[in-house]
Structure prediction request, 290 residues.
Amino acid sequence: MSTTFQLDTATSRATPTPRPRKRLTVPAIRDHKKEGKTSDPLVMLTAYTARQAQLLDEHCDMLLVGDSLGQVIYGLPTTLQVTVDMMIAHGAAVVRGSYHALVIVDMPFGSYEGSKEQAFETARRIMAETGCAAVKLEGGDSMAETIAFLSSRGIPVMAHVGLTPQAVNVLGGYGARGRSQREHEKILSDGKAVQDAGAFAVVAEGVLEPIAISLTQSLDIPVIGIGASAECDGQVLVTEDMLGMFERVPRFVKKYENLAEVISKAAGKYAEDVRARSFPSSDQTYQPKD
Prediction:
């Protein structure tokens, strides 16, 4: 059953009433880079809920429903435990809460690596049940054939190279990639492979800055950096990291706010009022009419 219906702002907490805008398209994102250069960098953040999407939508070109939700929302140790059902539930919420940004949903670990046909079925289901415009998968040259298979069948694909969290057990951790000449060459060849396979953009995560710059300059499709370089065609961060919801974050994260402290203080004040019986007051209770 489709979950792409819009929010009823008359009965939900979805306020203020969103003003519909023309949603960005995959060709618009791809064509943002002209003759190998991007004059206006693309803005991308993660989103997992309808309300979060509403707040981010006007500021972003793309919203990524990342499998990082496994750690951020569910408290899982890695992204490996995330399921397709989880991605669909959150993806549908983000689509409902946004009107402008292109929504991309991660394909979780184990849902696409088995075969091109498995990848197609997973991507088909995600797009049909969320209303998103594209999917993202991890891997370079090894996934090129799958990317070509999906792209030729009407499924836009964003690729992901460099540090690929779903391969953390193979990589041996979350350290920066590209420190050896072999890794350097692989990242560049992976970028070329996914571009040639039909990916409309590629995320480059946790790579040495000179490699990120070389990759960006060598590809015709947008390169979205995370822990890469300001010279990339755009940037993405996990929103909760950027908002300061966690104490431990990757070194490439810049905290633009400290919401953890704000929330903790508000909860503390609420607890004091409850224990002092000063909440609820007459302003928050229903009194008999005279």
Notes: The first helix runs from residue 26 to 30. The chain is about 35% helix and 10% strand.
